[in-house]
Amino acid sequence: MSCENPSVDKDALMARRPKFDKTKQCVKCKERTGNVVIRHAVYCKSCFFPLISTRFRKSLEPSVNPTPDGPRRKALKASGSLLVGLSGGLGSTVMLDLVAKTYFGAPSVADLGEEAPPSKPKGGKEHPRNMTGKDSEIWRGVPAVCYVEVCGAFPGAEDRTERVRQVVESYATTSPPFAFDFIPLRLEDAFDLEWWKGVGELLFTPPPSSTPILALQAYLSSLPTQTAIHSATQTLVRLLLLYTAASRRASHVLLGTSLTSLSVNLISGIAQGAGFSVAEEAMEEWRGEGKSGELTPPIRIVRPLRDVGMKECAIWAWWCGLRIVGRERYLGGTQGIGSLTRNFITGLERDYPATVSTIARTCAKLTPKEGSDGVCLLCQRPAQHGVQEWKSRTSIRSYNHASFSSSGHERPPHLANATDRPQHRTEPSPSSHLTPHLCYACHTTLTSRSSRGNVKQTSDSKVVPLPLWVGASLSLVPTSEDSSGEVWATRRMGDGEMKAAIGDLLLNDS
Amino acid sequence: MAPQTCAICQKAKAMVKRPKTGEQICRECFFYVFETEVHNTITQANLFKPGDRVAIGASGGKDSTVLAYVMKMLNERYQYGLELFLLSIDEGITGYRDDSLETVKRNQQQYDMPLKILSYDELYGWTMDAIVSQVGRKNNCTFCGVFRRQALDRGAAMLNVDHIVTGHNADDIAETVLMNIMRGDIARLGRCTSICTQGEDTIRRSKPFKYAYEKEIVMYAYFKKLDYFSTECIYSPDAYRGHARVFLKDLEAARPSAIIDIIHSGEAFEVREEVKATQRVQQVCQRCGYMSSNALCKACTLLEGLERGMANSGITDRARKKLDAEGPAPDNLRTIPFFKPPSGGPLIAIESVS
């Protein structure tokens, strides 16, 4: 007989909602007992692997062919080679594993697990994995894995290049072996002429500055907030990967952004004013300038784990015994928008597991409001026009600004009788200005200040070095007065000129 | 240490650190840039034309108090040629609205503007106190929000105005952008950054404080010595909105431009055409004539639930089915008066300044 107390409120006795729905049986095979719970659904170990690899392929394969038509599985043929970005973190390590196992013959999970290897080739003989010779190649040439070491930006950080190299080389010892080309880069390569000579055309001679690492540190220390350092680092890594990919004639760059990281990037991007390029966060196409100055063929940046959450990645890594090197996750300290967003989203994901997927799906339904009239020199994503007018209209910083005086505003009462206008630093002419060539988010990164005192800035550097692609592109930008559309071919960027170009962005003069 | 000079005029002594930009500026420049930015917002969107009758949604809180002051001043300074009114909604929450309505009445005197107070009781036959006593503290915000929006439009129709301006500030809009993304509310995300919204049969609504930071509004009220009531609603605050608000405040602390950056992001994108095609078409409520996405508008649905003693029928599908199972609404059901968009002169007597 039950000893329940009838006077107790029924609600108070209700059990908490179970973490999984209805049964402990796998929702897919409906036979075995489940091993993992993914968003309230239970999966067994055997069904988990195909679930993830299917999601991975579904995200990647529609964008492999230059035009997504025809029966995809039989005719996967990319127009160039493959470059995999590896940060050493969980997402990219899992993605490398999936790439190796799905397309390059590394032993599949079924072979590694308890089950006996199948007698028939898995996926049928037409599957790219089971084809031989030239037919088997989806991408041209040997695929590359590129790692960008960021320790140069953060003194005291560990150099993980060798440990990442071991992870990549471990695929050469599997059966059958497969060797990726390993390309180790460093963040300071963005300021290194030697690296740039290998990937881009040298149209200008940068000021004879110090070493690349000092240039990198000078660039980062000139930024006004912790948030800016984080996003500038992200941009440098992205562009280093892209230029490297272009130099290898790659058609695809794969990044290991999981669904969780994608949601964090989307919200953090929106919070930094990057709404115009919200679609680019999930999938983008980039064309750079090659060594001879012409535009390279388009490179697709695909995030094939964009439907796989962080938890699923961790389970994959655990069951496959993957070694996660870890990454230097600099999110701008506790006061950076990156880390605030990450904490916020992972907290929400814990309490409301569907949130990250909602964010990604909502943002996938968005498109830029108007066409773009150019590309931002710094991040090389589409830039919106009229950004500076918008900024000066919504946040007035000067009574001398053209948009202020032309709009017929009166003078403020306390200046009405003043004969002389307020003296402001003279702005360089718009044609020599970097500002018009930046997108909203990059301009904000370089100029928006923190309310809690600025990041410590170096006092001795009067000229802030910029990544080499900015200097190269700036030398190709037609001047606004140049109505004939003629392009400057070669021009030397001297110290003073560089200073004038970014004069408005330098904060250490004040 | 020598006192800082104003970063804008370079003459006067800097008095405030501007929340939006972090610049140290003098008090006069703060007033002037604050007002001019609101003016820029108004002119850029061509919000008004001379002769427009404009109602200021006045709650007695900081935003609407400053809005009334700034609207009156800009109207005179830049000769907008507007006829301004104050429109207040009395939700009927004892101890919450009483004091703030006193502020609105004082504003009526100070600014020499006609005032109309419209109560939920007058319009729907229910005060919020009565609603809470039936539905409890959970979900009562749904009733209040739906009823307030319609009440403002109906009040404006009574005043026969062309336009309602509300005190929504930049923080509110940035927060709404984030919330709509996290909730996947595509329809609202598409329109939440618009400065002006207008349904087919409703009155134009705009937000002249769209780019004004909440902190700057408080700072403006403080320096101008404008008095207002800062009372939190005594019924439960929305938990999810609370999360987003805290997050937004953290972002602002990390980088003050975050609020305006989010608004810029929200303005830079729109919903894809193919997604828009799947959204519902606006229609008119069969019972009260107000704009609606369904045959019955949300206010009529909620009111029917209240009247029939099943208040949750407007909130959960299960309760709605239960209500439907009990048959159609009785003929003698109390309903909202039929909505008539403004035409000709005022439909009601308004309180003029005594």
UniProtKB/TrEMBL annotation, chain A:
GO terms for cellular component: cytosol. It comes from the Eukaryota. GO terms for biological process: protein urmylation; tRNA wobble position uridine thiolation. Residues 111-135, 401-436 are annotated as: Disordered. Residues 123-135 have a biased composition (Basic and acidic residues). Pathway: tRNA modification; 5-methoxycarbonylmethyl-2-thiouridine-tRNA biosynthesis. It is found in: Cytoplasm. GO terms for molecular function: nucleotidyltransferase activity; sulfurtransferase activity; tRNA binding. Its main location: cytoplasm. Keywords: Cytoplasm, tRNA processing. It holds the Pfam family CTU2. PANTHER family: CYTOPLASMIC TRNA 2-THIOLATION PROTEIN 2. Belongs to the CTU2/NCS2 family. Plays a central role in 2-thiolation of mcm(5)S(2)U at tRNA wobble positions of tRNA(Lys), tRNA(Glu) and tRNA(Gln). May act by forming a heterodimer with NCS6 that ligates sulfur from thiocarboxylated URM1 onto the uridine of tRNAs at wobble position. Prior mcm(5) tRNA modification by the elongator complex is required for 2-thiolation. May also be involved in protein urmylation. This is Cytoplasmic tRNA 2-thiolation protein 2. It comes from Laccaria bicolor (strain S238N-H82 / ATCC MYA-4686). The gene is NCS2.
